[in-house]
């Protein structure tokens, strides 16, 4: 299958597309989309890469699964298209953003503007069956997205990785902490946030301080 992905990412990851696991993953995903309602729509699966080319990536925000409700997932972790109600985790992200950098909470949950500034909004698993959270886990996506993280670690410098929650924190082993920045906290989901593991992490202001120290343009959150 010809993978439709941004040109520089395609070049960086070209070896992955030829590996047996990725070919098996492709067949699995094609079958799932044929027989079930799956998200995001096929043309949006690689949106994180389309909006944030490899050489422009300054920040990585790692999610686990796409949203599995109608109209929610569009290929960017934690983001939903305009007009779709904001999920609880995204609401808590916005609350922390307001407390941290005093930005008014927008009336939509579309994070494309972040991605266009160099924030890779990457889910570990890029597809999901409708109303079945985790249904496409352990089919090969994690191998692929782990390679994405490792390529950034190996070939870039000074990327800020925001790892929220236990699942994301495990990815720190893929990152060279001697040349990148890793910020961790609890997950913004209500279960974690309400226990005090999310609010007050100040990741948005800390990220911009780290970027500014490298003479990189801060993110307009």
From TrEMBL:
Q: Which reaction does it catalyse?
A: Hydrolyzes single-stranded DNA or mismatched double-stranded DNA and polynucleotides, releasing free uracil
Q: Which superkingdom?
A: Bacteria
Question: Which residues constitute the catalytic centre?
Answer: 65 (proton acceptor)
| Cited InterPro entries | UDG_fam1 (IPR002043), Ura-DNA_Glyclase_AS (IPR018085), Uracil-DNA_glycosylase-like (IPR005122), Uracil-DNA_glycosylase-like_sf (IPR036895)
Compartment(s) where it occurs, according to its Swiss-Prot or TrEMBL record: Cytoplasm
Q: Which CDD domains match?
A: UDG-F1-like (cd10027)
**PROSITE patterns given for it?**
U_DNA_GLYCOSYLASE
User: Which biological process terms from the Gene Ontology are attached to this UniProt entry?
Assistant: base-excision repair, AP site formation via deaminated base removal
Q: A Pfam family for this UniProt protein?
A: UDG
Keyword Disulfide bond in the entry? The reply is no
Q: Which EC numbers does the record give?
A: 3.2.2.27
Q: Which Gene3D superfamilies match?
A: Uracil-DNA glycosylase-like domain (3.40.470.10)
Gene Ontology molecular-function annotations: uracil DNA N-glycosylase activity
Family matches, as SMART domains: UDG, UreE_C
Residues annotated as domain Uracil-DNA glycosylase-like: 50-211
Q: What is its main location?
A: cytoplasm
Q: One cellular component GO annotation, for this chain's record?
A: cytoplasm
Q: Does the keyword Heme apply?
A: no
Keyword set, alphabetical order: Cytoplasm, DNA damage, DNA repair, Glycosidase, Hydrolase
The record's comment on protein family reads:
Belongs to the uracil-DNA glycosylase (UDG) superfamily. UNG family.
General function of this protein: Excises uracil residues from the DNA which can arise as a result of misincorporation of dUMP residues by DNA polymerase or due to deamination of cytosine.
State what protein this is by name. Answer: Uracil-DNA glycosylase
- Give the source species: Psychroflexus aurantiacus
């Amino acid at each position: 299958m010809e993978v439709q992905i941004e040109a520089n990412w395609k070049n960086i990851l070209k070896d992955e597309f030829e590996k047996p696991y990725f070919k098996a993953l492709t067949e699995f995903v094609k079958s799932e989309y044929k027989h079930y309602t799956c998200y995001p729509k096929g043309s949006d699966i690689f949106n994180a890469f389309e909006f944030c080319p490899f050489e422009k990536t300054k920040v990585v925000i790692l999610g686990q699964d796409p949203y599995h409700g109608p109209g929610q997932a569009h290929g960017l972790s934690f983001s939903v298209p305009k007009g779709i109600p904001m999920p609880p985790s995204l609401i808590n992200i916005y609350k922390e953003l307001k407390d941290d950098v005093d930005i008014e909470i927008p009336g939509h949950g579309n994070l494309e503007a972040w991605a266009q500034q160099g924030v890779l909004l990457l889910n570990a698993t890029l597809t999901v069956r409708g109303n079945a959270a985790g249904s496409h886990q352990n089919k090969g996506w994690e191998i692929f997205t782990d390679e994405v993280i490792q390529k950034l670690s190996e070939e870039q410098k000074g990327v800020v990785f925001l790892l929220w929650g236990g699942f994301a924190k495990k990815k720190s082993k893929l990152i060279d902490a001697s040349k990148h920045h890793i910020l961790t906290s609890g997950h913004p989901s209500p279960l974690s946030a309400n226990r005090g593991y999310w609010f007050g992490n100040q990741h948005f202001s800390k990220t911009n301080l780290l970027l500014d120290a490298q003479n990189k343009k801060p993110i307009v959150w």
